[in-house]
Amino acid sequence: NAAIEPCKQSARRDVYPDLSALFLDIVGKATLSHDFGALRGEVDEFLRSLNYILEQSLRPVHAFVRSWHRLPLPANREVDRALQVIDDCLATLIRQRRATAPRGAPQQQDMLDLLLQSPMSEQEVRDNLVAIVVNGHETVATSTALTLLLLAQHPSILARAQTEVDQAIDAAQGQLTVE
Questions:
Q1: What's the predicted TM-score (pTM) here?
Q2: What phi and psi, each to the nearest 5 degrees, are found at residue 159?
Q3: Largest CA distance in the chain
């Protein structure tokens, strides 16, 4: 419940990598019942590969040259390597789930279970997992980073938000729920 004092000095901190790891862990747990361990640094290469693929997909050349990805360029070899890292990680996740799923018994019914119970091919399951992981963690991490930036730029709004959080915690006697 400490009062928020406006920062007298300007400080820069790139929170995006931490948010990206946090939301990868949240998406993993919430939709796949899987702990990626991103905050613990256990999937740094996987996270770097995801981010590299996202960066490359935004490059303008990809929109204008259809066969760009076939050229023997270092960036294209890196894309192939990054895709392999992602494929390997997700294939391991799929293989582990298939191995631990009891035959004929109801499964956990998370998104991965639903995908594995569908008539999709292995490639379609993998593609859907990529979409879930990328869209689930990247968009929320970006939105949260932008929200924190805006709050940092508007100390009076940050103070009001902190007061509201403090009041909610006090009213709930420290026992917060979704409601």
A1: 0.74
A2: -65, -40
A3: 62
Q: What whole-number distance in Å separates Cα of residue 168 and Cα of residue 166?
A: 5
- The neighbour count for residue 91, using CB atoms within 10 Å, is 14
Two structure tokens written together for 140:
């929320």
- Can you count the helices (H) and strands (E) in the chain? 7, 0
Distance from C-alpha of 17 to C-alpha of 51, rounded to nearest angstrom: 10
d(CA 140, CA 28) in angstroms, rounded, equals 13
- Taking only the tens place, the pLDDT of each residue in 157-171 is 999 999 999 998 899
Q: Are 148 and 11 in contact (CB under 8 A)?
A: no
**Token match 């019914």: residue?**
109
Q: What is the spatial distance between Cα 73 and Cα 15, in angstroms, rounded to a whole number?
A: 31
